[in-house]
C-alpha cells in the first residue's frame, strides 16, 4: 500500500494534492482496496461550493456504496472524465489517473488540519 508524502489525507480516506489555489482530490489506496472493484462514481456537484467534511459524491463498488467527503471547503471545478468510462482506474491508479475531482480552494488554511502521510498510514495500520 502506498502513502505519497506530497498529499494530505482525511480520516474518511480521501487525499488532496494542493496546486496553488486549486487542488485534486481522490480516494486512497487503502480505501479502494477496502471497497473492492469500483463500478461507478456519481459526482453531481460541479460548480457547487461543498463545505469541508460534506458529501460531494458517491463511489459504488460491487458490494457497497460509499459517500465521498470533501477534505476542505472548495468549489468543484471538474470531474475526471476518464472515470466515467473506466471507474476501475480508481482501483488501478488511485493517486494518478484515478483522481476524482479538481476543486478551487475556499479556505486554504483547512489543508493544515488534514493528516500527513505518516499520520494517515498510522491510522489505517492500527
In short:
The protein is α+β, with helices and mostly antiparallel strands and 126 residues long. 19% of the residues lie in helices and 35% in strands. It has a single domain (8-106), classed as OB fold (Dihydrolipoamide Acetyltransferase, E2P) (Beta Barrel), CATH 2.40.50.100.
Averaged pLDDT, please?
Answer: 96
CATH topology: OB fold (Dihydrolipoamide Acetyltransferase, E2P)
Strand content: 25-35%
The CATH homologous superfamily is termed RNA polymerase II/Efflux pump adaptor protein, barrel-sandwich hybrid domain
Question: Strand order, biggest sheet?
Answer: 1-2-3-9-8-5
Identify the CATH class: Mainly Beta
The sequence of SSEs as H and E is: EEEHEEEEEHHEH
Q: In whole angstroms, how far apart are the ends?
A: 14 Å
Structural class: alpha+beta
Catalogue the unreliable spans.
none
Calculate Rg over CA atoms.
13 Å
Q: What is the correct CATH architecture? A: Beta Barrel
> How many β-strand runs?
9
Would you mind describing this structure in some detail?
Residues 22-104 form the Lipoyl-binding domain. This is Glycine cleavage system H protein. The glycine cleavage system catalyzes the degradation of glycine. The H protein shuttles the methylamine group of glycine from the P protein to the T protein. Belongs to the GcvH family. InterPro entries: Biotin_lipoyl (IPR000089), GCV_H (IPR002930), GCV_H/Fam206 (IPR033753), GCV_H_sub (IPR017453), Single_hybrid_motif (IPR011053). With 126 residues, the chain is of the alpha+beta class. It has one domain: OB fold (Dihydrolipoamide Acetyltransferase, E2P). Helix content is 19%, strand content 35%. It is built from four helices and nine strands; from the N terminus they run E-E-E-H-E-E-E-E-E-H-H-E-H. The strands form two sheets. A six-stranded antiparallel β-sheet has the order 1-2-3-9-8-5. Strands 4-6-7 form a three-stranded antiparallel β-sheet, with no helix packed on it. The radius of gyration is 13 Å and the shape is globular. It starts with 7 loop residues before the first strand and ends with a helix. The mean pLDDT is 96.
Amino acid at each position: 500500500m502506498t502513502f505519497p508524502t506530497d498529499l494530505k489525507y482525511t480520516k474518511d480516506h480521501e487525499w488532496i494534492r494542493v496546486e496553488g489555489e486549486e487542488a485534486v482530490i481522490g480516494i486512497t489506496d487503502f480505501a479502494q482496496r477496502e471497497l473492492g472493484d469500483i463500478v461507478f462514481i456519481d459526482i453531481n456537484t460541479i460548480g457547487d461550493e461543498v463545505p469541508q467534511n460534506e458529501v460531494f459524491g458517491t463511489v459504488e463498488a460491487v458490494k457497497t456504496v460509499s459517500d465521498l467527503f470533501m477534505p476542505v471547503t472548495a468549489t468543484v471545478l471538474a470531474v475526471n472524465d476518464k472515470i466515467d468510462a473506466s471507474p476501475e482506474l480508481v482501483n488501478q491508479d488511485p493517486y494518478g489517473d484515478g483522481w476524482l475531482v479538481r476543486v478551487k480552494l475556499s479556505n486554504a488554511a483547512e489543508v493544515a488540519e488534514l493528516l500527513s502521510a505518516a499520520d494517515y498510514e498510522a491510522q489505517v495500520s492500527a
